[in-house]
């Protein structure tokens, strides 16, 4: 079987990966499309730091050992697929049914996230295993390439839901990468009447407008806080210094939602947040209901993800795509289509 795997920090093409066999409750699927996520880029370049941070957070000695960076690593968690076969005694959708799923595999040894693994194949492959109870059929007529973006759209919806924003409150989205775009789309779907997006890239500012932003700002021309008085700020940049800068500039009693993943140590001045009574909410992933809601929103046309797809590659082009995604003016979301 063909697949793209992470090896020594680079994505490489393989044509000799054993085809996975579904066990009870599992389904073998053919991958239709898989989006390249920013977290995959981070893991490729900072895998040791990601594993070390996970170990420190959980306090488990096995956290670092769960992935061997010296062996090939399977990735790809934003996918759509077609049902091929089911494991023993498993009731599921008929072969040929287009599906997507929360990226989790239920197995005898427990729950296996489909994120980074030496053994569990992800969406950068011809075929993979999914859990029958978690499958969601893709509605008739929905482009499976668009359905593959359900996962990142759910991340944006979760951030908006956690913010508690109301339609009359002004939202400021800092960073117009895929997650920032997903937040903008979720805000627009929620009926927020003033959505402001800021990014250095003119291409991404244009995309933010296409996804529903009412106004955009170039931070190189001055802080958006000089012209906007947001009630809710969404941080989707993930670099050191951003949170502290927001605390310093944000209005009194505003709310900060941190969706950007910063892997480096950061420094904040609590005084800024205390003096202005700013609420800070960190967010991660989504609830199953939010994943389902995002798929419906895409299928019903309330969220148009087509503008986000700026490139497609085969499995032999994944390494090149990882390199190209480092330039924000070249791409937003590249799909892998095996």
Can you characterise this structure?
The protein has 338 residues and is α/β, with parallel strands linked by helices. Strands 3, 4, 5, 8, 9, 16 and 17 form a seven-stranded mixed sheet that branches. It has ten helices and 17 strands. The protein has two domains: 167 residues, Medium-chain alcohol dehydrogenases, catalytic domain (Quinone Oxidoreductase, Chain A, domain 1, Alpha-Beta Complex), CATH 3.90.180; 131 residues, 3-Layer(aba) Sandwich (Rossmann fold). The longest helix is centred in the first third of the chain and has 21 residues. Helix 4 packs across helix 9. It comes from Mycolicibacter kumamotonensis. It holds the Pfam family ADH_N. GO terms for molecular function: oxidoreductase activity. This is Alcohol dehydrogenase.
């Amino acid at each position: 079987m063909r697949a793209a795997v992470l090896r020594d920090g680079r994505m490489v093409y393989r044509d000799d990966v054993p085809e996975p066999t579904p066990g009870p409750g599992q389904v073998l699927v053919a991958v239709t499309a898989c989006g390249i996520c920013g977290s995959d880029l981070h893991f490729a370049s900072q895998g040791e730091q990601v594993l070390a941070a996970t170990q420190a957070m959980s306090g488990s000695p096995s956290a670092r050992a769960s992935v061997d960076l010296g062996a090939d690593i399977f990735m790809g968690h934003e996918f759509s697929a077609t049902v091929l076969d089911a494991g023993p005694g498993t009731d599921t959708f008929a072969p040929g049914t287009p599906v997507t799923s929360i990226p989790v595999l239920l197995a005898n040894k427990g729950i296996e996230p489909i994120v980074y693994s030496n053994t569990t194949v992800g969406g950068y492959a011809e075929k993979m295993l999914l859990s029958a109870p978690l499958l969601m059929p893709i509605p008739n007529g929905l482009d499976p390439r668009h359905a593959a973006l359900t996962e990142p759209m759910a991340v944006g919806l979760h951030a908006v839901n956690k913010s508690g924003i109301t339609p009359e409150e002004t939202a400021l989205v800092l960073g117009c990468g895929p997650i920032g775009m997903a937040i903008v789309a979720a805000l627009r779907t929620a009926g927020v009447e003033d959505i402001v997006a800021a990014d250095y890239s003119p291409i991404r500012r244009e995309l933010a407008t296409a996804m529903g932003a009412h106004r955009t700002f170039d931070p190189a021309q001055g802080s958006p806080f000089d012209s906007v008085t947001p009630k809710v700020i969404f941080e989707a940049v993930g670099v050191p210094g951003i949170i502290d800068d927001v605390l310093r500039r944000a209005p009194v009693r505003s709310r900060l939602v941190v969706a950007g993943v910063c892997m480096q140590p950061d420094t904040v001045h609590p005084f800024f947040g205390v003096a202005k009574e700013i609420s800070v909410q960190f967010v991660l992933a989504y609830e199953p209901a939010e994943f389902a809601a995002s798929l419906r929103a895409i299928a019903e046309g309330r969220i148009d993800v087509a503008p986000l797809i700026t490139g497609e590659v085969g499995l032999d082009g994944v390494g090149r795509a990882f390199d190209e995604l480092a330039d924000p003016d070249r791409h937003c979301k590249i799909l892998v289509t095996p």
